[in-house]
Amino acid sequence: MGMWSWEGLDKNGRRSAGQIExxxxxxxxxxxxxQGARVKKITPPSLLEFDLGEWMVEKGFAKSFGTKxxxxxxxxxxxxxxxxxxxxxxxxxLYKSEKNPSLxxxxxxxxxxxxxxxxxxxxxxxxxxxxxxxxxxxxxxxxGGILDTILDKLSVHLEKQEKTKSQIKSAxxxxxxxxxxxxxxxxxxxxxxxxxxxxxxxxxGQELPAITQFVIDVSDFxxxxxxxxxPGFVVVMMGISSWGKxxxxxxxxxxxxxxxxxxxxxxxxxxxxxFSRTLATLLGAGVSLIDxxxxxxxxxxxxxxxRDIEDVKKKVIEGKTFTEPLLKIEYFPEMVGQMIKxxxxxxxxxxxxxxxANVFEDEVDEAINAxxxxxxxxxxxxxxxxxxxxxxxxxLPMFMAGGGA
Length: 405
Prior knowledge:
The termini are far apart. The protein folds into three domains: 2-50, Roll (Ubiquitin-like (UB roll)); 65-159, Up-down Bundle (Receptor-associated Protein), CATH 1.20.81.30; 160-405, Receptor-associated Protein. Helix content is 75%, strand content 5%. The chain has helices at residues 25-34, 52-58, 67-82, 87-97, 101-115, 120-125, 132-144, 147-203, 210-244, 247-259, 263-284, 289-299, 303-317, 323-326, 334-346, 349-404; strands spanning 2-9, 15-22, 38-43.
């Protein structure tokens, strides 16, 4: 989108000229025709006015903004609104200072919608990256006259949500990376080192021990089929990824993740922390419990937990208390359910959920530390055992030959 210059006649038939922002010459003519102007000459934007970032966003080359960028934007917006800066001026300041092209373009379009009379929530709702949770809270803040407070809560919520997700990803990726590196080392030994000794071992003419023959067979197999391993692995992973995007596949994979030793606890507690924090923020902003649960279902990454929360919402609609169906979920801690029940009875469920989210976050930290400490020795022992087996298989025939001599 750029600034186009035009010359022609206005709606009163007088000579006129000006500039208008549009994506194409066709759009310029359409906009001016809507104003009653008759265009004679249109000059496209100069290269000096060309916005490379916006062009990349429009062509799909730019990366969309994430939770981190949105959290920073929200915090800055909250500070300016709290300081009494008008919304339009705040958006203009944020637009000029924003570095992410996708968020910069979104802020620009939000500002345009607000200038045309739409609410901030309506403008944000039209942009990718602003979730339903975000827009509903902004709407509640605008209606209640507490937009700065809501934006401040949102920035805290986004920061903690991003922290929990990062911790879970870190906990899951660390053993995977170490295992892949270890597997690469073992593959190199089997494929390149073992064959160097095979000829020498065969020349001795002695019968090879079973362990040595096994390692040689594995080496021969890897040497013959190694070229198919990487493509095969890529195809399998792509197949799993595609299947995981289907409803059935997503539930199956999430079920496996929840039942994994050590890491299952991290996944469950991390998602429950996010759920508790989201629900607390929504209820604190005045959103009804049913609407809040519906929004929570959309924001939970784990399909199994999202399905269970959907069932809780249905029970609440039927007239049951929030705690009753929640306690029937097998992985939901009973003590936490009782805390929510107290919050329901005292009318401070949002504060109680906020405290529960803090508890879950602390438990996620502890679970990550425990899992990391558990996985390190296991990986070392397994890789050490494999490498030791290879070395024993290579040197055992030599020792036997030396002893026989």
